[in-house]
Amino acid sequence: MHSGLRRYASAPLYLVAVLGLFLVSACSSDTVGGPRTLSKGGATGRSWPAAPSLPPLADLELEVTPAGRAQIPTSATAMTEGVPVAILLPLSGPRGALGKAMLDAAQLAVFEVAGKNFILLPYDTKGTPEGAEEAAARALGRGAKLILGPLLADEVTKVAGQARISEVGVISFSNSRNVVGNGAYALGFAPDQQVEAIVDYAVSQGLSSFGVLAPSNGYGETVVEALYAASKQRGAVVTRVGYYDPAATDFSEQARALTDYDQRREALMRQMAELEGKTDDISKQSLERLQVLDTVGDPPFDAVLLPDAGQNLRTLSSLLSFYDVDQPNVRILGLRAWDETPEIAAEQSIQGAWFSAPPLSERKKFEDRFRAAYNYVPPRLASLAYDATALAAVLAQSPEATDFSAAALTDPNGFRGVDGIFRLLPDGTVERAYAIQEVTADGFNVIKPGVDSFQPPIN
């Protein structure tokens, strides 16, 4: 057993399962300088206290300590002796519920992972770029050594400039490539990597032509661009692209056009017309077979990507079936957002579909612990706040010294978190290991696990 794992061998099973962020290389020694072993901090033997109730932090600055309670700072000395890390979230405004849930996740990480010197400073962005700019100024004024958040790309732009002047890193919860670099990172789930993962698997299964029905917004455009790039790299082609208004309720026209339904229907009518009136047995049998069909001829793709989720996903998959595009002849493909769709397995038109997503097993454990602490189910993005806070807490208790440098944040071995392994890259993006799931009547089935290390295997 690797020495970095022995210290946990005799710990209670619950403690072993706690998702402190361990370096992925903790089970490998093939990296320059050998792996680092990171401690979870002083969570041993503690029970989770009553979930703290935090007000919107517009005027009151609170700190979250490893004891898991929100406290008013008692002295400047306490700040200088600890490691202050700011987290910027929309604790008020339209996204207030999401922001508060992400703060709950961050506090859970403090309790489970942080050492006694770690201080989490929450600030309310009010969900606006101006609010994020003000929150960043206050956090930097308090001496924050690292900023976690904010949530949206336009907020990150306001924060990153200030942080850069102060030489403080920013680990945002955005997934936009347009606001990263020079010390700012995007921890969110990048659509292009999800597309690459699902296209790679589909091509490995013999599929070579793709269609896509995407929402007519920035997300949809990013997905389509990524589909073109991923297909070209793997010798496949994109044959059909359709966009729709995600706020609409009727996508019939777009689905009908994408599937070439009218052309295939007309081909059926022509063949039936040619056979009608013929009296030989072969013609009669052929006509009988055609009369039970809606179309003839193959759809213009082997697989179709539906990157949307929720009711739009249900509607689109049903429309594809209505327009005579059925699995497994044409495979439906999806992305991470699918795992947010309630009761997706009950949709018969989606059963058999494949989608790329972070591994689900560790996130389910996180959700169980979160629900036990706060008595509600965390929203999907709460895991980002947990992982970012745990990463900061682990780096804050490194034996060498607190190190939030670019080299530490972008360790090539990466980290293991709620959503599997990930690593921040020097250009500010994040690389994740996505698994491929299949939708079945009983839920999701892993048909290709995500990789467990960023390092190449030892020969």
Q: State the helical fraction.
A: 25-40%
In the CATH hierarchy, what is the class of the largest domain?
Answer: Alpha Beta
Structural class: alpha/beta
Poorly predicted runs are 1-61, 67-79
Architecture of the largest domain, CATH level 2? 3-Layer(aba) Sandwich
Taking the alpha carbons of the first and last residues, their distance comes to 20 Å
The number of helical elements comes to 15
- Output the CATH homologous superfamily of the largest domain: Response regulator
What CATH calls the topology of the largest domain is: Rossmann fold
Characterize the largest beta sheet: strand count, sense, and whether it forms a barrel. Answer: 7 strands, mixed
Shape: elongated
The chain-level mean pLDDT equals: 82
The number of strands is: 18
* Count of all domains: 2
Q: Oligomeric state of the chains?
A: single chain
Proportion of residues in β-strands: 15-25%
Rg from alpha-carbon coordinates: 26 Å
Placed side by side, the strands forming the largest sheet appear as 10-9-11-12-13-17-18
What do these coordinates show?
By secondary structure, this protein is of the alpha/beta class. The protein folds into two domains: 3-187 and 361-428, Response regulator (Rossmann fold), CATH 3.40.50.2300; 191-260 and 299-357, Response regulator (Rossmann fold), CATH 3.40.50. Helix content is 37%, strand content 17%. It has helices at residues 3-6, 13-17, 76-81, 96-113, 129-141, 153-165, 191-204, 218-233, 252-258, 261-275, 281-291, 310-322, 361-374, 382-396, 406-409; strands at 22-23, 63-64, 70-71, 83-89, 118-124, 146-148, 169-172, 184-186, 209-215, 237-244, 303-305, 331-334, 354-357, 415-417, 420-424, 430-432, 435-440, 443-448. The chain has a seven-stranded mixed β-sheet, with helices on both faces. Strands 5-4-6-7-8 form a five-stranded parallel β-sheet, with helices on both faces. A four-stranded antiparallel β-sheet has the order 1-14-15-16, covered by helices on one side. Strand 11, helix 12 (310-322) and strand 12 (331-334) form a beta-alpha-beta unit. Helix 4 (96-113) runs parallel beside helix 14, helix 5 (129-141) runs parallel beside helix 6 and helix 10 (261-275) packs antiparallel against helix 11 (281-291). The longest helix is centred in the first third of the chain and has 18 residues, at 96-113. The radius of gyration is 26 Å and the shape is elongated. The chain starts with a helix and ends in an 11-residue tail after the last strand. The model is unreliable at 1-61 and 67-79 (pLDDT under 50).
